[in-house]
Amino acid sequence: MRTASPAKRAGASQPEAAATDPDRMAAWRLAISLSLGSAIALGLARFSYALLLPPMK
């Protein structure tokens, strides 16, 4: 009598249809673009504020 391997008995993680490689790449691309967008906006805001500081003194 042959039994299934422990991984199959425990319900080993199999790649699902919704978690394919292109979907993961799209999720990473979205996360990186959102974080870069906020970093760029913060940099522009700091630069603009630095330009406004001398006239405000």
Describe the fold and architecture.
The protein is mostly helical and 57 residues long. The protein has a domain at 23-57. It is 70% helix and 0% strand. The protein has two helices and no strands. The protein has helices at 6-9, 21-56. The longest helix is centred in the C-terminal third of the chain and has 36 residues, at 21-56. The protein is rod-shaped. The mean pLDDT is 83.
Topology:
Layout (H helix, E strand, L loop, with lengths): L5 H4 L11 H36 L1
* Helix-strand sequence: HH
Structural class by sheet pairing and helices: mainly alpha
The low-confidence runs, each spanning 5 or more residues with pLDDT under 50, are none
Which word captures the global form?
rod-shaped
How much helical structure, as a percent, in the residues? over 70%
Total helical segments: 2
Q: Main sheet?
A: none
> Could you give the distance between the termini?
86 Å
Extended strand count: 0
Sheet-strand content, in percent, reads: under 5%
Nearest-integer average pLDDT:
83
Rg over CA atoms? 25 Å
Quick description:
The chain has 57 residues and is an all-alpha fold.
Main features:
57 residues
